[in-house]
Amino acid sequence: MAEDQRETIAFLSDPSSYGAASEVERLETHISLVFLAGERAYKLKRAVRLPYVDFSTLDQRGEACAAELQLNRRTAPELYLEIRAIKRRANGGLGWDGDGEIVDWVVVMRRFRQDERLDAVAKAGGLEPRLLHALAAHIAAFHATAERRPESGGAAALAAVIAENDDCLRTSTVAFSAMRIDELRERSRAWLDRIRRLLDRRRTAGKVRRCHGDLHLRNICVIDGKPVLFDCIEFSDAFASIDVLYDLAFLLMDLDHQGYRASANLVLNRYLDLADETDGLAAMPLFISLRAAIRAHVAASAGGAPEEARAYLDRACAALEPAQPRLIAIGGLSGTGKSTLAAALAPALGASPGARVLRSDVIRKRLFGLDPEAPLPESAYTGKVTRRVYAAMRSQAGAAVRAGYCAILDAVALRTDERHAFAAVARDAGVPFTGLWLEAAETALTERVAARRHDASDATAAIVRRQLEVDPGALDWQRIDAGGTPADVLVHAKRALSLL
Question: Do 409 and 423 form a contact (C-beta atoms < 8 A)?
Fold first, then answer.
């Protein structure tokens, strides 16, 4: 039987327990209570026993608090301060630390404003590209150093997740459609069969690590403009010892589900720009589906609105619907707006959360081991280096379309052989190809490159003028007037791609 925590909750709800605190706010989830007092947050584990977590005894809660502190300091050392004991005083009341029998444990955190949580930032329109780039970089760096767990993950682990989701959905208090649950189970099993070897190869290659495990918008905050991951899963190694892309998939699914698909696409692309994980793209639809299915039955068990739980189930099924991969190349001189167009097109193309965008400027920086926005010297723009860049673009584009995703190649592509080589990637993969060639007046091009800030391109007005002197040869790509607004160019491109 779970222990009675009413006295502990009353103690933590009392402002006098914190000295100078004038009031205490309380936040609740199905497994914890958080008390906000002054500049601190005090997190209490609920004395619950659920199929996936057991906090029913004092010892279990103490161990979980210690694990939470240790694990979350990997990504949020500035937030996670200590664990503290609540003890029985000689007078029978409760107090902090000191002598007496331990009654319960709490994790003490630095308090942050609720409007600094990423879900609130998103609702306020704050999902700016620089923030999302920083978030993707934060996650990629965390994954790169997270402890490898080769004994976990792989196809067998995902088969267990599929089975558990199926059981939880069927036994839920929310009346899910039995036909929909059947559809999800069969699609999930079929997808798993197709990628079984890939999952096991990735586990062997060290891609299964002790990750965050619960990486959704409400578990990310923005402090002083910096994204911070917090509240990782501490109670189950199995839930958090997963493929790094399965960890990322929760964030991508949540962004898409909340109506921020373009942001999800940007995060995915920046993550893949920074981390060598393109080989795992074929697993992403299943990863996203499993995340949505988990949210469906968790939302149901937490007493949320039934329609919300059913919407997650619908998303889980939709993630596994067949998607037609295609390859699109966007060429043109510097300043024509290739990258702006690629970013605008990508979310609407193919499987969630949209197309893989391969930008020559970014790949060039990565070949030199630099961040995408770091400047390169002119010596990095020789023909030999450019051939390496284009070869890397072709390789990654081929991998993306063979994985079932659409891909967009963003490069000047002034040479006929460069454009033909891009088209050959699609031909070899057996997917449709469309080349778009953007054109604008010299004045517009030079003004645009001069106005760039914090961008991967190193192009200058002088470079634009040199490009204008080059004859691109025969152009068999669809020519688009890029002299107007980005919205106008997007409309023209969508028409050329039969998306309108």
Answer: no
Secondary structure, 3-state, 62-130: HHHHHHHHHHHCCCCCCCEEEEEEEEECCCCCEEECCCCEEEEEEEEEECCCHHHEHHHHHHCCCCCHH
Q: How far apart are the first and last CA of the chain?
A: 60
Query: How many of the other CB atoms lie within 10 Å of CB of 2?
Result: 12
The residues that bridge with 328 in the sheet, in sequence order, are: 408, 434
pTM over 0.90: yes
pLDDT tens digits for 154-178?
999 999 999 999 999 999 888 899 9
Q: Counting every residue, how long is the chain?
A: 500
**Which of the 8 DSSP states describes residue 148?**
B
Q: What is the DSSP string of 252-312?
A: HHHHHHTT-HHHHHHHHHHHHHHSS-GGGGGGHHHHHHHHHHHHHHHHHHTT--HHHHHHH
Cα–Cα distance between 186 and 181 in angstroms, integer?
A: 9
Going by the DSSP 8-state scheme, the letter that residue 482 receives in this structure is -
Indicate the helix (H) or strand (E) that contains 166. helix 154-170
- Amino acid at the residue 397: A
* Domains of the chain, start order: 6-111 (3.30.200), 118-318 (3.90.1200.10), 327-496 (3.40.50.300)
